[in-house]
Amino acid sequence: MDIELSPLQARVIGCLIEKEVSTPEHYPLSLNALTNACNQKSNREPVMSLGESEVQQAVDEMIKKHLVSEKSGFGSRVVKYQHRFFNSEFGGTRFNPQQMGVVCELLVRGPQTPGELRTRTARLCKFGDVSEVEQVLNELMGHEEGPFVARLPREPGRRDSRYAQLFCGEIEAAETTPAAAPTQTMTTSDRERIDQLEQTVAQLRQELDELKQQLGA
Predict the structure, then answer these.
(1) Which of 97, 158, 173, 186 could cysteine-pair with 125, CB 3.0–4.6 Å?
(2) pTM of the full structure
C-alpha cells in the first residue's frame, strides 16, 4: 500500500468520505464545513479542536498527493473539496459500499470491534449481521493491494478483538492475516451437550403437558 496519512489527514479524508455518502446534497465540502466535520463531537474519536488553517494545511498536503481535489460550482466563489481516495472518477482501487463504510468509520473513529462497526456504519452501508462485518474486515486484510486493516491483540475484559486502519502506518503486534473461516465440524463433546439439551427440553415439555392436564387446560 502506497498511501500513508498523518492522523489529521486521516480525519480529513474520513470526513470527506462520510459526508459524500451521508449528506450528498452538501458535498463537496467548503473549508468551513470540512473543519466543522473534523471537529464534530459525535462519531469521532478522538474529538479534535482544529482551526481552519490546520485543516487547510492538511488539505493542501493531500492535494499534492492527489488524494483530494478542488471543485467549485459555476458562479461560486467558495472553493470546495472532494476526496480522490478510493472509488473516485480518477480510477484506482475500488471498494464496495461495505468496505468503504468500514474504512471510513475506522478513519474517523479509530479501532473498533466488528459489533461496533456494524452499528456505527449504519448511516453509510448495511450489514445483515456481525459475520458480514468480519467478512469485509477479512477482505480488507487480504486485499491484493493491502492490507488496509489489521486485527489488534485482544484486550483484557473484551470478548472481541478490535480492528484498526493501516493508512497511518503499521501497528506493532497487530495481525494482518485474515481470520480462518469457522469450522463446521461437530465434536463428540458438542454432540453430547446437544443430546442433553434435547433431553431436557423433552422432559420440560412432558412436565408442562402433565401440568396442563392437572389444571384442566
Answers:
(1) 97
(2) 0.78
